[in-house]
Design a protein that fits this description.
By secondary structure, this protein is α/β, with parallel strands linked by helices. The protein folds into three domains: about 100 residues, 3-Layer(aba) Sandwich (Cobalt-precorrin-4 Transmethylase, domain 1), CATH 3.40.1010.20; about 80 residues, Rossmann fold (3-Layer(aba) Sandwich), CATH 3.40.50; about 90 residues, 4-hydroxy-3-methylbut-2-enyl diphosphate reductase, catalytic domain (Cobalt-precorrin-4 Transmethylase, domain 1, 3-Layer(aba) Sandwich), CATH 3.40.1010. It is about 40% helix and about 20% strand. The chain is built from nine helices and twelve strands. It has a four-stranded parallel beta sheet with strand order 1-12-10-11, with helices on both faces. The chain has a four-stranded parallel beta sheet with strand order 3-2-4-5, sandwiched between helices. Strand 4, helix 3 and strand 5 form a beta-alpha-beta unit. The longest helix has 16 residues. The radius of gyration is 21 Å and the shape is flat.
């Protein structure tokens, strides 16, 4: 029997990712080399591989870049690093997502207004590392285990990683409020498109026998989609592409749902859906 496949209403590339890729493609086609990106331009190995073939050089540190043009990735970069590159006379092309830029600006403004900046998110994620470079002594809390980092009886200015889920942010805000503070200011820095994808994925995963979340394992928004879907459908699998699929998990399943992270290209989604729809489990 073949599988019925339903694709989430909202999935795949967001505007920030589209902008970063098109910026890189334009620069590669029009500028003399060498052309670098400071870190992977988006969290998707296939896309990064294609851009590498077109001539983009990925650098993991500013020390690796001495000449040419530097594209700032969609997740942004520490202002200090950008200033250092400019000082060396390198051309900077900023492909930072506008919502990440907004988060950076808000963190800086909160700090200048004497708030202790608190970010709900993953301190190892490049988006958060870039924001941490925009304000002094930023505190990052991933979950309630990190709340011991918060100072008591002070002004707290709270923001969040753009790809967090509203449920996690609201739970963390409730926990932060119990810690004790003199003043609490909260600014919503969630990406509306990421939230729409989360809602769409959760709605779909409740209607299917098995759920697939497509995207790079390094992609924070894709991991968040997978986590949310697993809450409501234990048969949820986070895969990077069709080749990673273990066909034996299809046994007894009739309807499959598919969603994808904001950095997952359309061709990966299309290939997966096409292969899934054509798969006959009688071959197992």
């Amino acid at each position: 029997m073949t599988m019925k496949v339903i694709v989430a209403e909202k999935s795949g590339f967001c505007q920030g990712v589209k902008n970063a890729i098109s910026t890189a493609e334009t620069i590669l086609a029009s500028e003399p080399g060498p052309i670098y990106s400071l870190g992977p331009i988006i969290h998707n190995k296939e896309v990064v591989g294609q851009l590498k073939k077109a001539g983009l050089i990925m650098a993991n540190s500013v020390e690796q870049i001495q000449t040419g043009t530097v594209i700032i990735r969609s997740h942004g970069a520490v202002p200090e690093h950008i200033a250092e590159l400019k000082q060396r006379g390198l051309k900077i092309v900023d492909a930072t997502c506008i919502l990440v830029k907004r988060l950076q600006t808000i963190a800086k403004e909160l700090q200048e207004a004497d708030y202790k900046v608190v970010i709900i998110g993953d301190e190892n994620h490049p988006e958060i590392r870039a924001v941490m470079g925009c304000a002094r002594d930023v505190i990052v809390v991933a979950d309630e285990k990190d709340l011991h980092k918060l100072p008591k009886n002070t002004k707290l200015g709270v923001v969040c990683q753009t790809t967090e889920s509203p449920d996690h942010v609201s739970a963390m805000l409730g926990a932060i409020a119990k810690v004790g503070f003199r003043e609490l200011k909260v600014i919503n820095t969630l990406c509306k498109e990421a939230v729409k994808r989360q809602k769409s994925a959760v709605k779909l995963c409740k209607q299917v026998d098995i759920m697939f979340v497509l995207g790079d394992l390094e992609s924070a928004n894709t991991r968040r989609l997978a986590e949310l879907c697993k809450k409501y459908n234990k048969q949820t699998f986070h895969l990077q592409n069709w080749n990673e699929l273990d066909k034996n998990i299809f046994s007894g399943k009739n309807i499959a749902g598919v969603t994808a992270g904001a950095s997952t290209p359309e061709w990966i989604i299309a290939e997966f859906v096409e292969n899934l729809a054509a798969f006959d489990d009688s071959a197992l």
